């Protein structure tokens, strides 16, 4: 809070009580009178449209049939993610000319010739893998089990390797329809290389070029002849669960949180920072409700984002945030709150999403570190003191159930609408008690106010002059005191209008 904000902070404890006593009908009549007063001012077409806005309805949950699932598997660096992007017709999966870029099984919704499906990209499968590579291979095996059709991708220019033969044995045991995709066949002269893959015993190889798109349409036509209309293995889809993005710096515990909430090893967890690269979303039942959790790549300092897979992973994290409704920002309590943590929180505020702060590794906290932490929160996170706070341990699942009421509170605030009459009664009471200071011999007045949108709550004030930033922050604080808005940013915009010339 700046010194200038202090001049607006006179005690006003009974404002909420007076507003509660305002009759709804009286408030609407007062708002209509203020609205008619705007006719004396120059209003453009956009102003008039804004004043006529009607409230949006809430969307409920719709039950949808499970889309058929196509899993893409193979050893590292054969072009699986490039094939995913080619089938989807857009750049979704992170692609780099380095083995092992993809680590988790990542699901994407796709559509081809009016057929909708789920496409699952996987990390490279290797036999006898150790460490993180073993976790990546395990996720690929799970993807095969949870698919209706498998695309087995082989590098036609290299030919069948011992690893490819091991994958074939695993696929035979899975008892799924398998299509052998001979990738990197960029022209007709290279097709004899693909013919050599008949030796794998999986039937006819489909020569394709994921990079150029050659042969992909022919392969998909064959796939759709055996792909069921409704998946035999996937869960039923819910058409309206709230989308929750899990954000934080690398190695803070985001993937552990998703795994614990999903009650399975859904994503690869490793001590290596930056394990997750593609956003991984999962439909989860938590607290008796269905949620769509999205695990994202850790947002690194800008100096590390100049090139490579981590740069594209960060772009996809920001895209996942734009699709989410609420963000859970994880903070590692065993380390001081950093500038990076604050930057991630500010990214959520800029996106206009609801916010929940989850303090992870709480079970590792001692009394001394707790004292320092509270001081850091007061100093560095004062601007988001309205965000619900949950102390958890993603690794053990401690207090994970407290995440649900925090999410519900934040989303309820994010959806909240204040009737126009009530909002103008609030503004009238507020400006009578604390009028805007005189600046340069003029005192701006608020003529009328309306809530233009929710998600996030966005208010528009028609004024006779520019309002100080400190006064706008004062209005925000009073809105929070009276109406809550816990866990949601509040946007206040102004439209300065002059009286129409007679």
Helix and strand topology:
Elements (H helix, E strand, L loop, with lengths): L2 H4 L8 H6 L3 H14 L7 H7 L11 E2 L4 E5 L6 H9 L17 E7 L2 E7 L10 H14 L3 E7 L6 H13 L3 E6 L7 H5 L10 E2 L8 H11 L10 E2 L3 E6 L6 H9 L17 E7 L2 E7 L13 H15 L2 E7 L6 H13 L2 E7 L6 H14 L8 E3 L11 H13 L4 H14 L12 E8 L4 E6 L5 H15 L7 E6 L6
Parallel strand pairs: 2-4, 2-5, 5-6, 6-7, 9-11, 9-12, 12-13, 13-14, 16-17
Antiparallel strand pairs: 1-8, 3-4, 10-11, 15-16
GO molecular function: GTP binding; ribosome binding
Keywords: GTP-binding, Nucleotide-binding, Repeat, Ribosome biogenesis
GO biological process, one term: ribosome biogenesis
Structure description:
By secondary structure, this protein is α/β, with parallel strands linked by helices. It folds into three domains: 3-55 and 417-496, 2-Layer Sandwich (GMP Synthetase, Chain A, domain 3), CATH 3.30.300; 63-226, P-loop containing nucleotide triphosphate hydrolases (Rossmann fold); 241-408, Rossmann fold (3-Layer(aba) Sandwich). Helix content is 35%, strand content 19%. The strands form four sheets. Strands 3-4-2-5-6-7 form a six-stranded mixed beta sheet, sandwiched between helices. A six-stranded mixed beta sheet has the order 10-11-9-12-13-14, with helices on both faces. It has a three-stranded mixed beta sheet with strand order 15-16-17. The radius of gyration is 28 Å and the shape is elongated. The two termini are 43 Å apart.
């Amino acid at each position: 809070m700046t010194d200038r904000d202090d001049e607006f902070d006179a005690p006003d404890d009974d404002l909420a009580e007076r507003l509660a006593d305002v009759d709804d009908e009286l408030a609407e009549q007062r708002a209509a009178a203020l609205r008619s007063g705007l006719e004396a001012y120059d209003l453009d077409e956009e102003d008039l449209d804004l004043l006529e806005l009607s409230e949006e309805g809430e969307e409920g949950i719709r039950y949808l049939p499970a889309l058929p699932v196509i899993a893409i598997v193979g050893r590292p660096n054969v072009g699986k993610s490039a094939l995913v992007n080619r089938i989807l017709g857009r750049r979704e999966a992170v692609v780099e000319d380095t083995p092992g870029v993809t680590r988790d099984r990542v699901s994407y919704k796709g559509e081809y010739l009016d057929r909708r499906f789920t496409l699952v990209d996987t990390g490279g499968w290797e036999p006898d893998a150790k460490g993180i590579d073993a976790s990546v291979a395990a996720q690929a095996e799970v993807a095969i089990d949870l698919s209706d059709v498998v695309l087995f991708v082989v590098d036609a220019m290299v030919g069948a390797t011992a690893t490819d033969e091991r994958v074939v044995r695993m696929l035979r045991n899975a008892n799924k329809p398998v299509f052998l995709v001979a990738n990197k066949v960029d022209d007709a002269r290279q097709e004899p290389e693909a013919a050599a893959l008949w030796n794998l015993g999986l039937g006819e190889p489909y020569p394709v070029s994921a990079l150029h798109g050659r042969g992909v349409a022919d392969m998909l036509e064959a796939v759709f002849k055996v792909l069921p209309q409704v998946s035999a293995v996937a869960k039923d889809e819910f058409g309206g669960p709230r989308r929750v993005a899990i954000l934080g710096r690398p190695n803070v515990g985001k993937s552990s949180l998703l795994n614990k909430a999903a009650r399975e090893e859904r994503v690869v967890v490793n001590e290596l920072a930056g394990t997750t690269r593609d956003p991984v979303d999962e439909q989860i039942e938590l607290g008796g409700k269905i949620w769509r959790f999205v695990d994202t790549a850790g947002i690194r300092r800008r100096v590390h984002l100049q090139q490579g897979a981590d740069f594209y992973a960060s772009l996809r994290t920001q895209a996942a945030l734009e699709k989410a409704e609420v963000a859970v920002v994880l903070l590692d309590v065993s380390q001081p709150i950093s500038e990076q943590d604050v930057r991630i929180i500010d990214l959520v505020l800029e996106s206009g999403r609801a916010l929940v702060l989850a303090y992870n590794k709480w079970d590792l906290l001692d009394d001394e570190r707790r004292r320092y932490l509270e001081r850091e929160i007061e100093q560095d996170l004062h601007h988001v003191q309205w965000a619900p706070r949950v102390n958890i341990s993603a690794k053990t699942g401690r207090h994970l159930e407290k995440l649900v009421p925090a999410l519900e509170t934040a989303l309820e605030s994010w959806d909240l609408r204040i009737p126009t009459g009530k909002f103008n009664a609030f503004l009238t009471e507020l400006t009578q008690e604390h009028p805007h200071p005189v600046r340069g011999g003029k005192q701006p007045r608020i003529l009328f106010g309306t809530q233009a949108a929710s998600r996030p709550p966005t208010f528009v004030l028609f004024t006779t002059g520019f309002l100080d930033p400190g006064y706008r922050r004062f209005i925000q604080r009073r809105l929070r005191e009276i109406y809550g808005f816990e866990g949601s940013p509040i946007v206040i915009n102004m439209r300065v209008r002059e009286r129409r010339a007679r």
